[in-house]
Specification:
The chain is mostly helical. The protein is built from seven helices and two strands; from the N terminus they run H-E-H-E-H-H-H-H-H. It has a two-stranded antiparallel ribbon with strand order 1-2.
């Protein structure tokens, strides 16, 4: 697995906002000429792929920070807002589609994933009240400062 994927703070905020946007329009498949999904790391050639993987399988490895953010939000939103949680599950499904169990285990074991996951869990632990929890999960507060 390739390490060192970096997301800027702005990209992480955007990704979390996109992950929590409700409703998610995930039913429409991307166009054939659409760029790769934002939450996967792409590998331009087979020489960049780890031993035992082809460029095609390596291209489906989720970016650790993105997966950590989405799964951290899901751990909070699951019991708070089932509708938003379903959207997160769909997003995570898209992010992990095509990745092997081994690749997912490596991503989830990475420092990048753990830091992103723990950051979201830490943030959500400070949310007060069910109304604010639903606002977070639905993305209602997104864009406000």
């Amino acid at each position: 697995m390739r390490h060192g994927h970096k997301l800027t703070r702005g990209a992480l905020v955007w990704l979390l906002g996109a992950a929590l946007a409700a409703p998610l329009a995930l039913a429409d498949p991307p166009a054939a000429d659409a760029p790769p999904a934002i939450a996967t790391a792409t590998s331009p050639s087979a020489t960049d792929a780890p031993a035992g993987e082809t460029a095609a399988t390596s291209a489906q490895t989720p970016i650790p920070q993105a997966l950590g953010i989405a799964e951290g939000a899901l751990s909070y939103c699951g019991p708070v807002d089932p509708e938003a949680a379903e959207g997160l599950r769909q997003l995570i499904g898209q992010m992990t589609q095509g990745a092997s169990e081994r690749q997912l285990a490596e991503v989830r074991d990475s420092d990048e994933y753990r830091k992103a996951y723990d950051s979201v869990v830490g943030f959500t632990s400070k949310i007060e009240g069910p109304r604010n929890g639903k606002r977070f999960c639905s993305g209602e507060a997104r864009g406000r400062t």
